Amino acid sequence: MALKPEISPVVICLSRSGEATAHKVAKVLNAQVHGREGRVDVADAFFPNALDYVRTLFAAGTPVVGVCASGILIRAVAPVLADKTTEPPVVSISDDGAVVVPLLGGHRGANRIASTLATALNATAAVTTAGDVAMGVALDEPPVGYRLANPEHAKPVMASLLSGASAQIIGDNIFDLSSDPEGAVALRVSEAPAERSEASLAYHPTQFALGVGCARNADPEELWELVQKSLSDANIAPECIASVNSIDLKGDEPAMNEVARRLGVPLRLFTAAELEAETPRLKNPSDVVFAEVGTHGVSEGSALAAAGSDATLVIEKQKTKNATCAVARASAPITDHAGRSRGRLSIVGIGPGQHSWRTPEASTLIAEAEELVGYGLYIDLLGPLASGKTRSDFPLGGEEDRCRFALEQAAKGKNVALICSGDAGIYAMGALVFELLDRAPEDMGVSDAAHRVDVVSTPGVSALQGAAARAGAPLGHDFCAISLSDLLTPREDIVKRLHAAAEGDFVIAFYNPVSMRRRTLLAEARDILLQHRPADTPVMLASSLGRPEEHVRYRKLSELEVDEVDMLTVVLIGSSHSKLAQLGEGPRMYTPRGYARKIDGDLS
Known about the structure:
Distance between the termini: 59 Å
Structural class: alpha/beta
Low-confidence stretches: none
Largest sheet: 7 strands, mixed
Strand content: 15-25%
Radius of gyration: 29 Å
């Protein structure tokens, strides 16, 4: 998708003395209040440890507004600070609401949040960024509805102004600054392309909507070149485009999504009926297009629908062999987008459960999602990232219904995260999602609309990786994973794979080793393996990995008992070369790669 969804801030409250302020702040920001357990009476969610909680939110890209001492927020986020251009805002507020301090992300929203809250609370905003202090504005953060074309030059321009230079304002004075016709730096506001340099910043109103159409799987370069030429011929800066728009049937077209990505704006979609309502305003209605998709104009119609009822076409339909485009001008900068988004389904593996084992990308996708779908326990493990979101819990055994529901919700234009444990592509829902998309609807696949959803997969820490890390390095040489569940795999196939893995001397990770009713395959697997490797081959049993009740123990292969294994246990069976090293902190399991043999050979 072209733009990342905006993540709503969370208001953190640590004590009753700040509770009233927290709720006032939340109302102003339309945000949730999350409170410390036992110290806050009313909140949308509660947490036991402030440092871990804030760190989790920050790592996921969630703006944090803390009604607490600044030092608490600083200590929380300090270990995960990395890139100021992508990190979310962090703002602290005194318990009495008298002082608001933007700590991080001043020019990424923190100063704006501080200013908004200071006005609402009659407080003092302790802004420290140089431009805001000296001039009351941040030149790299223009008002909503305007885009800065050359943000890389904002710093030298600001430095010049802070050194005493004056500015000449060309076009609208969007910052309400004094203008000097002889100023050494220029702030230019225009719809046309403008000069960009270390002495000139170019701002453009997002007052235009781009409508596009194309043949199925058209070359993205063909559409991009058509758009560039059309804007150039009309003397419209690309930064003036507020959105790329088309008919919903084309939501998955690579060319349209690529144009939106390059312009840095959202792709918005309209139904055929919504576009057909624009027919009286079209300059080039087409009966051929109507016969194909149910509307007399895609590019012109979607541009007009996106720009509003008082919009005018400033670029009539332009076309090449496989693509069309048109541009409509709104009466004011477009800040609320009509139509709907394409819809996205993120298939997210959250690891074994411990939040520190969850990848930052996974946390970000969850934070961005509107709706969470999954087994209830897995959603519960998300802690603060699940709070306030629509959630649809499905029981174990409802996997196909779960995936189909997630796809169909995304097909409505929603941003949905399908939550899986471990890695979503390893014995989880990833494969089933793509299987449903690969089926025809009549074969219990999903709707045509679901096929146009943007599907994103992100890696997670699998159970076998978590178990191996706790053990030491048992997967140091060739290994495999086998599920002992015969619900989806015929028993004879599982036995065949057990024999092959045993004969190949692989380290083996057993998933789904037992259930309440399935108790025999693990014992059968043990007996098959004993035919090919020593009785004292080390076995690791890892239960509830990454959770407070985690339990790790070791056994000899011959002593492996079914009754000490449950559904939450991963079983790692060593190869004939695996060993247990007796170290000060206890035994550690590893499988040599063969370096010692290589060194011996080199020395001989």
